[in-house]
Amino acid sequence: MLPVEPSPTVPAPVGTAGTTVLVGSAWWVRVFGPVGRKLLRTLTDCRRITAFALITLATVFTKAGVARRVIRPLIQLQILRAGVRVLPIICFLGAALGVVIVGQTTQLLLQVGQTKLLGPLLVNLVVRELAPLSAALVVLARVGTATVTELGTARALGEVEALEALGVDPIHYLVVPRVIGITTAVVCLTVYVILFSLGVGYLFSFLRGLQMPPGEFLGIVAGAMEWVDFPLLAMKTMAFGFLASLIICYHGLCHPLRLEEVGEATTRTVAQTVVACLLVDALFVPIYVFL
Q1: 262 vs 2, 41, 148, 163, 267, CA distance in Å?
Q2: How many angstroms from the chain centroid is the CA of residue 166?
Q3: Phi, psi (rounded to 5 degrees) for 33
Q4: Which end of the chain is flanked by fewer CB atoms within 10 Å, N or C?
Q5: Of all helices (H) and strands (E), which one includes residue 208?
Q6: DSSP state of 9
Q7: Would the CA dihedral through 18, 22, 27, 32 be positive or negative?
Q8: What is the pTM of this model?
Q9: What share of the chain is helix, strand, coil (3-state, %, to 5)?
Q10: In whole angstroms, what is the distance from residue 201 CA to residue 119 CA?
Q11: Helix 87-97 / helix 176-207 crossing angle, nearest 10 deg
């Protein structure tokens, strides 16, 4: 009896449906997998930052009169760090905006004989948009990195757990002074940006031949503003400062930071704060348009 040889295995064609589905699935996973993971991480951060914001607001209102002798100097220290020490940079930025934006816009409108558009353009460019956003970004760049590193180091060294063991609320002691101080600093620095940009812009235009007294120039800008600009400007700057301080404190306290994680946490803080400020700024555009 002849031995029966096993039948040779027939390889599956390369173009079969199963192989095509596997190759296609692997391609989609390779391309969109990192994007999906990053999107999920961003959504998770948004949810946690929202919860962190609610906890912070609840602490601000429920413990407004608790330990004032301790919290008030901490708030003043944060205003000093985020406001007073940043003032030279803000003055330089306001002067640069005055030369580049106010001065060039004034000269261009004078050349085409459209000085009646000077007030609305300066109000929309400087007062409503550039001044609040630039002040928030300068405070973020000046204070954000140091605060993330400071809070992350405190969490890594066990200082947060030590405060809890002593019966001290870490949110009230570490977060609330920074939120109030940074928000106040952004609001005040925005006013300085507006004043310096308009003043330096007028001086630059005057040196280039602008035949207009300073009172008339400021009167044109003030006449283009409406009463609603003042509360909206305050609301926008407070929102910028509140969001920036919250995101900074969240990334500093969300988990203990090792030395090699400081750079990544700082980069993520800056990116999320810039995106949040731009989204808030976009929300105010329809309000300015319809009011």
Answers
A1: 75, 18, 8, 23, 9
A2: 34
A3: -60, -50
A4: N
A5: none
A6: P
A7: positive
A8: 0.84
A9: 85, 0, 15
A10: 13
A11: 40
Q: Which residues contact 28 (CB under 8 A, 6 or more apart)?
A: none
What sign does the dihedral 192-197-203-206 (CA atoms) show? Answer: negative
| Residue 237 neighbours by CB under 8 Å, 6+ apart | 132, 135, 136, 186, 187, 190
> Which CA distances in Å does 92 have to 70, 80, 82, 186, 221?
34, 18, 16, 16, 21
Would you give the DSSP letter of residue 127? I
Most distant CA atoms of the chain, gap in Å:
119
Backbone angles phi, psi at 263, to 5 degrees: -60, -45
Q: Give the model confidence (pLDDT) of 2-25 as tens digits.
A: 444 444 444 444 444 444 444 455
Terminal-residue alpha carbon distance, the chain: 100
Q: Which residue has the tokens 């035949």?
A: 211
C-alpha dihedral sign at 227, 228, 229, 234: positive
Number of H helices, E strands in the chain: 13, 0
> Is the distance from CB of 222 to CB of 120 less than 8 angstroms?
no
| Residue matched to tokens 């558009």 | 117
DSSP string, 258-276: PGGGHHHHHHHHHHHHHHH
Tens digit of each residue's pLDDT (9 = 90 or more) over 192-247: 999 999 999 999 988 888 888 888 888 989 999 888 999 999 999 999 999 999 99
Q: Tell me how far apart the alpha carbons of residues 82 and 178 are, in angstroms, rounded to a whole number.
A: 9
**At a CB cut-off of 8 Å and minimum separation 6, what does 6 contact?**
none
